[in-house]
Amino acid sequence: MSRPAPDPAASSHLREVVIAVVLVQLVPILELVCGWVSPALGQPVRLGDALVEGLGLAALAALLYALPAGPRLLPALVAGALLGLSAERLGWPPLLGVLIALPLAALPPRLGLVFACLCAVIPPQLTPRAPELGPPPARRESPPPDLALITLDTLRADHLGALPGEGWWVFDQAISAAPWTLPAMDSLMLGEPVRRHGGGLPIDGGFTRPSPTTPVLAERLSGLGMRAAAFVSNPHLRASFGFDRGFQRFDHSDAWEEPHAAWALWGLVGWRALGWPPRLWARRDPLLVNAALRWWAEAGDAQRFLWVHLMSPHEYRRDPALSNPALEKEDPERLRRAYAEASARGWAEATRLIEGLGPQTRIVLVADHGESLGEEGRWGHGSALIDPQLHVPLAARGFGEGPSGGQVAVAALADALVRGALGSLSAEVVEVGGLRRDASGFGLRIAGGSYSARPPPAPAADPAEMAVQGELLEALHAIGYVPGP
Ligand SMILES: [Zn+2]
Asked: Does the first or last residue of the chain, that is N or C, have fewer Cβ atoms within 10 Å of its Cβ?
């Protein structure tokens, strides 16, 4: 008996699978090479990411070749995902990219795959890098000296790291205007409490936005002749939410070149469903600092205002092993350790930025809000007007006047920065979540950290204000800021 001859159809199919698996490796290779050759072609890709991407694409190729139409489908899928991402980055509907990719299904599979993989290098070249927004500010006689505002997302006051260099003031009782990013940053930029600007309250599945006519910090500083740039990645701090106002350059990292195929693949293979984050903002912190320092060096012929928002502390539970709510009871120390480590990573980037800006630069460091780490049984932020979520670190360098102590409203920073004097901060009225409190009546005992009662609404003087306050209180109650009626 002779052994059966190998099935030529099966072996040729296997050869095609191997060729497809090899060809799709072009995607990570192209990305690696582009990032390596020039930052203008793409952000550097980590080798680990490229390997994961290559393995995932190989798995996808092998899987599709098991289907009758798979070989023809694969190029269109790979190209569709890559072009869809490019389209999204350019502000076009992602479906457009997918439609453009469809004709690839008509090509011979191998040729189609080569074309599809080439799409991996198209996005970095098409994606506008750091668009210049608006004309540069008019030259003034004597604009204020260079200023950098560094905001760390979710950093608690008790996790302020060691400040590099000399001459820092630390405000140890700084209170944010709200316990989550959007209203808190609105307040910081507008210099107004939430009650006045009305931004960041939930409405019809979105959020209220402050009036675009009230000038924000960057507009006011640009008006003084400063050149302004922002480098941010928090999804709430978008241009579409008005955070680009006043900046001649606004870099939101979502608009950056990234390992595109990696994101596409993560969606395709369902990592999101397995608990993997779709976006690792913390990973962008070093890139934000690099981009900010590059701009700082390029813009040196004018007085500069730089805003950088770092996300590392916010991301301490991104590891799927830490996202389990049961851990809050079973192993809270593990979560607190993870928070401390994430905060230290953010702090290291903030330190690198400060050192890169040089000793002459005026710097303000502050957090948008804090984080509950098990106090009163709470975790996270955005849920209550309590110390852990409202008490934020605030440190400054390079301003003439020292703080006089006591509570400080972060919302008062904008005015103080425009004046160039932080000493008056302490006298400002502290207003949180739209509820007006003067510092003495606020009832926070920050130093002791023993505050627990949420403040009751302050009685309004006139009926019109009372109506506004009533509506606001309802909205605040809806998101758990204040007890219900
Ligand atoms: Zn935040």
From this structure: N
Query: Which residues have CB under 8 Å from 243's CB, separation 6+?
Result: 185, 189, 230, 232, 237, 250
Query: What is the count of structural domains for the chain?
Result: 2
Residues, the chain: 485
Q: 185 alpha carbon to ligand 1 midpoint, in Å? A: 8
Query: What separation in Å is there between the alpha carbon of 53 and the centre of ligand 1?
Result: 30
> Are both 310 and 221 inside the same structural domain?
yes
205 CA to centre of ligand 1 in angstroms: 19
Cα 314 to ligand 1 centre (Å): 7
Q: Is the overall model pTM greater than 0.70, yes or no?
A: no
Centre of ligand 1 to C-alpha 335, Å, is 18
CA–centroid distance, 311 to ligand 1, in Å, is 8
Per-residue pLDDT tens for 32-74?
887 676 555 555 667 877 888 888 889 888 888 888 888 888 8
| Nearest in space to 302 (alpha carbons), one of 419, 136, 150 | 136
Q: Which amino acid is at 227?
A: R
User: In angstroms, what is the span from residue 318 Cα to ligand 1's centroid?
Assistant: 15
For 25, 43, 119, 258, 271, the CA distances from 32, given in Å and listed in that order, are 11, 9, 14, 11, 22
What number of CA atoms fall less than 13 Å from residue 306's CA on the CB side?
33
- Contact between 147 and 413 under an 8 Å Cβ cutoff? The reply is no
Distance 368 CA to ligand 1 centre (A): 5
- 245 and 293 within one domain: yes
Whole-number Cα distances in Å, 169 to 129, 166, 398: 36, 9, 9
Q: Packing angle between helix 281-298 and helix 332-357, nearest 10 degrees?
A: 10
**What is the extent of the structural domain holding 224?**
147-254+282-478
Q: How far is the CA of 341 from the centre of ligand 1 (A)?
A: 17
Do residues 434 and 308 share a domain?
yes
Going by pLDDT thresholds of 50, 70 and 90, the confidence category of residue 414 is: very high
CATH number at residue 315: 3.40.720.10
- Gap from CA of 369 to ligand 1 centroid (Å): 6
Instruction: Mark whether 200 and 122 lie in a shared domain.
Output: no
How much distance in Å is there from the Cα of 235 to the middle of ligand 1? 10
Do 111 and 151 share a domain, yes or no? no
Asked if residue 135 belongs to a domain, the reply is: no
Ligand 1 center to residue 199 CA distance, Å?
A: 15
Q: How far is the CA of 225 from the centre of ligand 1 (A)?
A: 29
**221: its two tokens:** 């500083």
Cα 463 to averaged position of ligand 1 atoms, centre (Å):
34
Residues 159 and 88 in one domain: no
Based on the fold, state whether residues 116 and 207 are members of the same structural domain: no
The string of pLDDT tens digits covering residues 237-292 is 988 899 999 999 988 876 654 545 555 554 444 444 444 444 456 667 887 888 89
